[in-house]
Amino acid sequence: MTPFRLRNIPLLSRVGADRADTLRTDIDAAIAGWSEALLLRVDRRNQVLISDGRAVLNRAVSVGPSPPENAVFLGKLDDGRHVWAVRSDLQPPEDETTPVQVLDLRRTGDVFDDVSAQLVATATALLNWHDSARFSPVDGAPTTPIKSGWARINPVTGQEEFPRIDPAVICLVHDGHDRAVLARQTVWPPRLFSILAGFVEAGESFESCVVREIAEEIGLTVTDVEYLGSQPWPFPRSLMVGFHAVGDPEQPFSFNDGEIAEAQWFTRAEIREALDQGDWSSDSSSRLLLPGSISIAREIIESWAALD
């Protein structure tokens, strides 16, 4: 079989801005850059305003003369301006004639340009973490943000907490030739299928997790587990690590953990036809509906389907 690689960088893995991590602890530089900085507003539903493929960035000084406690530093643009984010109601751009839309990164992230995709993904992940990390896991004391939003500290003990990321594997199982497994979760409507995924457990490697999860979810024993790529998935704070592996179509399925309602082997031709029909959001009558382009699942499926 032709070597299997991702054809494109997953949409949420695009890099468009300098994360400028050294500025997170340089308070003087952060304050000095605030007067010219830009601000991304993310509401409670993780929505942002977008105009012509770009996230709407307001002037940072609109919220005060210095970074507020709840602001998180996202990096800097090519022109050197700093970019911050806050959880707040959305506000239109200063140019009121600019047409805007309210969009959700998870559902419509494919319309974002590279810079906006990176900024919104980072802001969403950080702000979601702050929402759930306001108290110390050690003694329950209230914590306060430090390092420009990239850590929280217990003011009594000095214990620091950092943004939590939950790693998960996502894997396309194929037979090494012309067929691949797609599955439907029990909570999904009929015809919605994707590849298999699961969270990494303590003390487990990514590759071991792939083998375990697939055995638990559909009862297949897989081999030749190979890495493909990764993508942040800030809903609320995951990192999706993509793989492919080989399974035996003669081995029967068994749904051992109750998460999967059904699984089937599909030919490459069937999957190509389904890809041509759009994605889960389409009104297609196709018997097979596949994930949208914002997910690494879509990129993995498309890359496999494109093989000769």
Describe it.
- The chain has helices at residues 27-34, 105-108, 114-132, 206-218, 268-276, 296-305; strands spanning 38-42, 47-51, 54-55, 57-59, 72-76, 82-87, 101-104, 144-146, 151-153, 160-161, 166-174, 179-185, 196-199, 223-233, 238-246, 260-267.
- By secondary structure, it is of the alpha+beta class.
- The chain folds into two domains: 11-161, Nucleoside Triphosphate Pyrophosphohydrolase (Alpha-Beta Complex), CATH 3.90.79; 166-305, Nucleoside Triphosphate Pyrophosphohydrolase (Alpha-Beta Complex), CATH 3.90.79.
- A four-stranded mixed β-sheet has the order 4-1-6-5, sandwiched between helices.
- Helix 5 crosses helix 6 (296-305).
- The longest helix is centred in the middle third of the chain and has 19 residues, at 114-132.
- It is globular, with a radius of gyration of 22 Å.
- The protein starts with 26 loop residues before the first helix and ends with a helix.
- 34% of the residues are buried.
- Pfam families: NUDIX (PF00293), NUDIX-like (PF09296), Zn_ribbon_NUD (PF09297).
- This is NAD(+) diphosphatase.
Can you lay out the helices and strands and say which pair or pack?
Elements: H1 27-34, E1 38-42, E2 47-51, E3 54-55, E4 57-59, E5 72-76, E6 82-87, E7 101-104, H2 105-108, H3 114-132, E8 144-146, E9 151-153, E10 160-161, E11 166-174, E12 179-185, E13 196-199, H4 206-218, E14 223-233, E15 238-246, E16 260-267, H5 268-276, H6 296-305
Parallel strand pairs: 1-6, 11-15
Antiparallel strand pairs: 1-4, 2-3, 2-7, 5-6, 8-9, 9-10, 11-13, 12-16, 14-15
